[in-house]
Design goal:
Layout lengths: L1 H32 L16 H8 L5 E5 L8 H20 L4 E5 L8 H13 L5 E7 L2 E7 L2 E6 L2 E6 L8 H25 L5 E6 L10 H9 L3 E6 L12 E5 L7 H12 L3 E5 L3 E2 L10 E6 L5 H7 L1 E3 L2 E5 L2 E10 L2 E17 L12 E2 L6 E3 L5 E8 L4 E5 L2 E4 L18 E8 L11 H8 L13 E6 L20 E2 L4 E2 L2 H13 L19 H6 L1 H10 L1 H20 L2
Parallel strand pairs: 1-2, 7-8, 7-9, 9-10, 10-23
Antiparallel strand pairs: 1-5, 3-4, 5-6, 11-12, 12-21, 13-18, 14-20, 15-16, 16-17, 16-19, 19-22, 22-23, 24-25
Helix pairs in contact: 3-5, 7-9
């Protein structure tokens, strides 16, 4: 009888075991086919934005992302960015239903020298620049060259992107966090460019003394690498209202606009056109100091005031001076030898952006030269956002005003710099009303008829424009040989400011129709352990992780053995 009972118990145990294994197999099959996870992080770091999800679900062709941020001896912070990139790409692969694939490549593991050099040249040509890291090895610290970026390929087209942010102003930790913050946007924005049938066209307005090609060559190179098409438009010669200009850049015009030209620009806006206004309202230039010791800053009449006023903004006839500024060199005689010495130049403010907007979120400072302040005007159905503003120690200087380079030697009086957050760049969005509504002259009507168009009195669709009170923001400096330097590089202090990033973000925002740039607003924090608390409670954590588990395991073993004896002793 006892033997029969034991046999029954063993049969029941095997049945339970078999049922348990079967349930585990079924659960495994279900989870492989239908998987879901909950994102419990505070900033939802593992959740794609709706715009990103929509883009990935509707991919037109297969996408391959080759990431070159890889290696075994990377520093901890870089490894964290590498791992986050991998997790993000896993989510994107799932959202795309397998149409997006990725691989990680350690460029330093390539043994073939010719193959490695060819790959390095390709990465540099696509804007993925090398970074020299100091890594800790068994033999001590050593230097390692990495290419912290990726190449995204769709069919026969490919574009590069940089993963690591090089932001010296924020420090290494914040730069790493910003690398995570911007990564989703960079990837989906690049994929969008590869998928689009229409290549966005950026047009520079000509005919009013605007900047020369060499002055904007650095920015144009950046746009070209990001799959933008660049052209020039001169009103009266080239069509403007044919729908083939996605963004119009008005870069530092020095001559007066005719009413006919203003009318055509106005009608471009009425058709949903996007404009980037980069305007110098004051005539003041450092080149003038090569001829005279001082200059008079006077207003520049571009005849654009009424047009911008109608849209909701006004550039004032003043100069914004700021204690947070870039230096200029002044030659001094030292031991009979001329030696340039750097002095702060309050007419060159270094400005920051309102951090809540994706154009300027976590952006390095931008360098402006002789900028003017901007007022926003009450305008119906127009949303206004201040993008760039002065520091807490700034002031407005009305013109005309005499500027002397020798004045840089004098220490500024802080009491005079008592204003803060003076607007220097503003974004306007909405349906604009035409300056020429019901009052267009016959010559203007004739001009629009040349393009087979009709006069519109208000925007047929929502339009956007950005107004910056400085035309030099887009101009790159040149070296002694006349070759262009990178936009934002200031040769006197040898610092690089975020002029290029600001303008590129501005262009991206103006043409963004799918809301992808909202992914740039993410806030992903790298949470590091508190070393102080770890050191103070070192003994406690050692006890909890090493000593405490032993009695717990012993207790569980005794309970299991007691239950087993009780069951099988019957």
């Amino acid at each position: 009888m006892a033997k029969k009972i034991k046999t029954t118990i063993w049969v029941q145990s095997f049945k339970k075991l078999g049922i348990g294994i079967a349930l585990l197999i079924i659960l495994l099959l279900i989870t492989q086919r239908y998987s879901y996870r909950w994102d419990l992080t505070a900033e939802k770091r593992f959740t794609l934005t709706p715009a990103s999800n929509s883009l990935l679900k509707n991919l037109k062709q297969d996408i391959l992302i080759t990431v070159y941020l890889d290696g075994d001896d990377l520093p901890a912070g870089i490894k964290n960015v590498r791992n986050h990139t991998k997790y993000l790409l896993q989510d994107m692969q799932k959202a795309s239903n397998g149409k997006l694939n990725y691989i990680f490549v350690d460029i330093n593991s390539i043994k073939n020298k010719g193959e490695k050099e060819a790959l390095q040249k390709e990465l540099i040509s696509k804007g993925v620049l090398p970074v020299n890291l100091e890594v800790n090895s068994e033999s001590g610290y050593s230097e390692k060259l990495i290419y912290p970026g990726a190449i995204i390929t769709a069919g026969n087209k490919s574009l590069g992107l940089t993963i690591l942010e090089n932001q010296t102003i924020f420090g290494a930790q914040q730069a790493l966090e910003n690398s995570l913050n911007f990564l989703e946007y960079k990837i989906v924005n690049t994929i969008s460019k590869l998928q689009q049938e229409h290549i966005p066209t950026i047009a520079y307005l000509q005919g009013h003394g605007e900047v020369s090609p060499i002055q904007v060559s650095s920015f144009n190179e950046t746009l070209s690498k990001q799959n933008f098409q660049i052209k020039k438009v001169e009103i009266g010669i080239d069509p403007l209202l044919d729908g083939k200009t996605d963004v119009l850049i008005v870069a530092k015009p020095t001559q007066t606009f005719s009413e006919e030209d203003k009318f055509m620009i106005d009608q471009y806006v009425m058709r949903g056109g996007k404009i980037l206004w980069l305007l110098d309202e004051v005539i003041a230039d450092m080149d003038s100091f090569q001829l005279v010791p001082s200059i008079f800053s006077i207003p520049r009449d571009n005849n654009l005031d009424d047009l911008l006023f109608k849209y909701g903004a006004r550039i004032n006839d003043d100069l914004v001076l700021d204690l947070y500024c870039a230096p200029v060199p002044i030659v001094e005689q030292i031991a009979g030898n001329p030696v340039p010495k750097l002095y702060p130049w309050v007419f060159y403010p270094i400005v920051r952006g309102e951090q809540i907007h994706p154009i300027v979120k976590n952006l390095d400072p931008v360098l402006l030269k002789f900028p003017s302040s901007i007022d926003t005007i009450r305008s119906e159905n127009i949303k206004k956002t201040i993008l760039l503003s002065s520091s807490d120690y700034s002031r407005e200087q009305k013109i005309p005003f005499q500027i002397s380079l020798e004045g840089a030697r004098q220490k500024p009086q802080p009491a005079l710099f008592n204003k803060k957050n003076i607007p220097l760049a503003v974004l306007l969005e909405g349906k604009f009303k035409s300056l020429y509504a019901k009052r267009a002259e016959q010559s203007q009507r004739d001009e629009i008829l040349k393009e087979n168009q009709q006069i519109l009195n208000e925007s047929a669709q929502a339009a956007k424009m950005i107004i910056v009170g400085d035309g030099d923001i887009i101009i790159n400096e040149t070296d002694p040989n006349g070759s262009p330097l990178p936009l934002g590089y200031y040769r006197f202090s040898r610092e690089t400011y975020a002029n290029k990033d600001f303008l590129q973000n501005a262009i991206e925002y103006l043409i963004d129709q799918d809301g992808l740039i909202e992914a740039r607003n993410r806030d992903i924090a790298i949470r590091l352990l508190d070393k102080g608390k770890i050191q103070d409670k070192k003994s406690l954590w050692q006890f909890l992780t090493v000593v405490a588990p032993i009695p717990i395991l012993l207790l569980l073993g005794l309970l299991f053995n007691y239950r087993r004896r009780k069951v099988y002793s019957k």
